[in-house]
Each structure stands twice: as C-alpha cells, then as structure tokens.
Specification:
CATH superfamily: Carboxypeptidase-like, regulatory domain
Strand content: 35-45%
Number of strands: 8
Structural class: mainly beta
Oligomer: single chain
CATH class: Mainly Beta
Radius of gyration: 23 Å
Length: 126
C-alpha cells in the first residue's frame, strides 16, 4: 500500500518537472502584398526578413508571416528567374526596419520609388 502512495505521488509530480511550453509569447502578423501593379516587372521579388529569404512574390500575390514582437529588418530583391532580364543587381538593396508589437496585424505593399523597391503601409481592408 505504501508503494502505491509513492507511485501516485511520483506520477502527480511529473507535470511540474516537465518544461513548460512558451505559449505566453504572442506574435504579430505581417502581410506583404504585391497585389497592385506598382512594380512594372514580371520578375519574382524575394522578401528577406533578418537577411534570410522568407518569401517569393509574383504579380498579384500576397504572403503573411507570424513573427515575434520586436525590431525586424525587411529587404526586397529581384530574384533570378527563367525569364530574360530577371537577374538581380550587383548591389544589395537597402533594408527597411519596422517594429512589431504582440497582437499587431500590419499590411505592407511593394511599391517602386526613385531608389528602387520599398514597402509601403497599406490598409487591411477586411
């Protein structure tokens, strides 16, 4: 009978010893859109988050990411493709920095300016 008590007490203590999942960390949603035809190229555009290729966008596409809160570095770059003229340039494009907060839902769209492509704030339009 005594061993049954100790076995039951041991089993009840196992959840306390197991590492807890980090469910308390909330994320932000970042939506990147190429839905408008502001960038007059049929080439694929790569989206780099923290200097890592995170997504590829063709015309009239959008993608979304669940990201932790904090500062993020975003960069756009033409990716080499099968079509002629889709070779990336020699210089790395400038990065844009944004700050995300837990629970944010932000939408950015790809636009073209005198210095090349950049991300511009867009309405969510739910």
């Amino acid at each position: 009978m005594r061993w049954l008590f100790f076995a039951l007490a041991g089993l009840m203590s196992l959840p306390a010893a197991a590492p807890q999942a980090l469910a308390a960390e909330d994320y932000a949603v970042l939506i990147i859109s190429r839905e408008r035809l502001e960038v007059p190229t049929y080439c694929e555009i790569g989206l780099y988050i923290q200097d890592q290729l995170a997504g590829r966008l063709f015309q009239e596409q959008a993608t979304s990411f669940n990201l932790p809160s904090g500062d993020m570095s975003l960069r756009l770059k033409l990716l080499p493709g099968q079509a002629p003229g889709c070779q990336p340039g020699m210089l790395a494009p400038a990065a844009q920095n944004i700050t995300l907060k837990a629970g944010d839902v932000r939408k950015l769209r790809i636009a073209l300016g005198p210095d090349g492509m950049y991300l511009k704030a867009a309405a969510l339009e739910y």
